[in-house]
Amino acid sequence: MNFFKKDYLPGLLVALILASLAIQLAKLPFLTIMGPLVIAILLGMVWRMIFKENKKLEPGIQFSTKKLLRLGIILLGVQLNLYEIYEAGWRVILLAIFAVVIGFTAVYAFSRLLKVDRKLGILTACGTAICGAAAIIATAPQIKAKNNDIAIATGTIALLGTVFTLVYSIGYQYMNFTGNEYGMFAGSTLHEVAHVVAAGAAGGSEAVDLAVLVKLIRVALLVPVIIFIGFLFAKIEKEQSPKRFSLSMVPWFIFGFAIMSTLNTIFQIPDNIADRIIDVSYLLMGMAMVGIGLNVQLSSFRSNGVNALKAGLYGSIILSVLTFVLIQWIG
């Protein structure tokens, strides 16, 4: 596919401008908790409300939501140094695995009980368990999720993460945690990296460092979780059609994510270069989120959003309570 086709340019230009604006807005005090990806979706929705649907934007927007999205996810792998995860110790790694398993299982179970659409339930569960909006948009192609589902799931996670961040920050003084224990708690239960940093600040700089480390271990689990979802979704699809599962159904871009993490571990890419790569990653993913926002139907929030929010809330509470008890127990 030729990146420089003329009919791509209008959509790419709009996506680039709005994604860049989202990144700048995400630096503001309150908006930093929401993160640039959620803001990019909102800007796309606002653009559509003001300028209505424009067919000229469609080719570039489709390119953003499919090709640039995958490239952004691959580049995001550079934020992981697998050796640092190894050095964290088996208890911290097991805590992160526990959080991912409980978070995904609880949210998905509640979504089924509340009759949330299966794909929306999977996206909300992944966003809760792993790394918020980035996990949602990485999972979406694997299950062929609709733009409305992606928007609802990211909006749900942004809202819940913000509420839980405020609750943690205010409630820290009553938790009877050391700074390190609080960092482990925040890092293993909050949704976005921005939430982890904001909430971890209540416990001091060491709490923030440990919280981010635990969170990045959860991000590293994105690879096996998406492969697992590939098997899970293929099994569900097989009940409806005779298609057989094969490894070709596993998304290639998630291996790109793993390769970038491995390269960063082996060569220890300097922080200033890694930060620029991550900035490009979020710009590309932000352009994809603008495209999603441009195609969102607000009516879907009223019909599907409430129960998805409930499932995310109930599952997040379960995750927080069980993790709190576990950390109190292991010290």
From TrEMBL:
Example of a GO cellular component annotation carried by this entry: plasma membrane
Keywords, sorted A to Z: Cell membrane, Membrane, Transmembrane, Transmembrane helix
Major location category of this protein: membrane
Pfam hit, one: Cons_hypoth698
Keyword Chaperone: no
Ranges annotated as spanning the membrane: 7-24, 30-47, 68-86, 92-111, 120-138, 150-170, 182-204, 210-233, 245-269, 281-299, 311-330
Top-level taxon in the UniProt lineage: Bacteria
Membrane topology designation: Multi-pass membrane protein
Protein localization: Cell membrane
UniProt record similarity statement: Belongs to the UPF0324 family.
Record protein name field: Putative sulfate exporter family transporter
